[in-house]
Design goal:
By secondary structure, this protein is of the alpha/beta class. The protein is built from nine helices and 13 strands.
């Protein structure tokens, strides 16, 4: 019988150092495959495989789409691609972002849960917000094991804390204790390694992982719009967690949606401030033209009032925007 031989690691802020320390302590003969998602910028190249390979005895790679899974290897999600696990193979997907990220930890965890069920171990490390929480809950539902870095010692406690607060986590450990735990789990035989029989919800989730598409009628329409494309967000409760997904597939947890709305709101307010300043500048130009022409004193005063009003509103917006914003996570 196999052990817990599918190890899924997710991290965000502070994740490069934390993941390097963890995998650097794994043994060369580890009877498991390791999959890593760390939130990265979508452009350029990633040095994560080289960093992780230097950290310990296991070789780390950016996999190719369809590559067979091998024990003793670390598969790192490349920039701007979700890392998806199928039975025996790795898939790369450019499906829409989840929680504002591609790759997303939730996608990795859910795919590992569906493909390997009780054989999978999900590990949440340092990071902001809550990516990984919903995926870890799905993994638990399918018989997997949930491991979380102790939020008190994580460089950024948001992701670990969210996982602990919302999922029946099996192990909460300091970073230095996670590698020995994973090694022990990899050698511990799984009594029934078969994933639970797929139901309609599982088929829907598999389709979302492969294509990132939400079909009409799945979930109920919410009062919110997608920050990425402006479409209606459909709300659904997944493992007692609220989850939002638009028609084309952008997906958000509550906390991640709030964070994206804050960013969108700031951009909208700066655009409004810019429009007001441009309006004031145009009104001042019209005021000057009226003054030089000497033909319409009333028009000159009207444009002066318009410029003053626009300048006043633009200055008020600037004062709001330059205040310290409320923080999430």
């Amino acid at each position: 019988m196999p052990g817990h031989d599918i190890i899924l690691i997710g991290a965000s802020a502070g994740g490069v150092q934390a993941t390097s320390e963890l995998v650097g302590s794994l043994p060369a003969d580890l009877p498991a495959a390791v999959f890593v998602v760390v939130h990265l910028a979508p452009f350029g190249t990633s040095a994560m495989p080289a960093i992780l390979s230097r950290s310990g005895p296991l070789k780390a790679v950016h996999p190719t789409d369809g590559e067979p899974i091998q024990q003793g290897r670390i598969y790192v999600a490349p920039p701007d691609h979700h890392l998806v696990i199928e039975d025996g193979h790795v898939r790369l997907s450019r499906a829409p972002t989840e929680n504002g990220h591609r790759p997303a930890v939730d996608v990795l965890f859910r795919s590992g849960a569906l493909a390997y069920g009780p054989r999978a171990v999900g590990v949440v490390l340092t990071g902001n917000l809550d990516d990984g929480t919903a995926g870890l809950a799905t993994l638990k539902k399918h018989g997997g094991i949930a491991v979380v870095q102790d939020p008190a010692e994580a460089d950024y406690s948001g992701m670990p804390r969210s996982a602990v607060e919302n999922v029946a986590v099996d192990h909460i450990c300091p970073l230095g204790e996670i590698a020995p735990l994973l090694t022990e789990l990899a050698h511990r035989m799984v009594e029934d390694p078969t994933p639970p029989e797929a139901d309609s919800e599982t088929h829907d989730m598999k389709n979302d992982l492969e294509h990132g598409v939400d079909r009409e009628g799945k979930g109920r329409p919410s009062a919110f719009t997608c920050p990425d494309c402006g479409g209606t967000l459909f709300e659904k409760i997944e493992e007692e967690l609220a989850h939002f997904r638009c028609r084309v597939g952008h997906a958000y947890s509550l906390e991640s949606l709030l964070a994206r709305q804050v960013a969108t709101l700031e951009a909208t307010l700066w655009a409004a401030a810019r429009a007001l300043e441009e309006n004031a500048a145009l009104a001042r130009r019209m005021e000057g033209w009226m003054r030089r022409s000497g033909k319409a004193p009333a028009g000159e005063a009207r444009y002066a009032r318009r410029a003053e009003e626009a300048e006043h509103h633009a200055e008020a917006l600037r004062r709001i925007l330059l205040q310290e914003p409320a923080k999430t996570g």
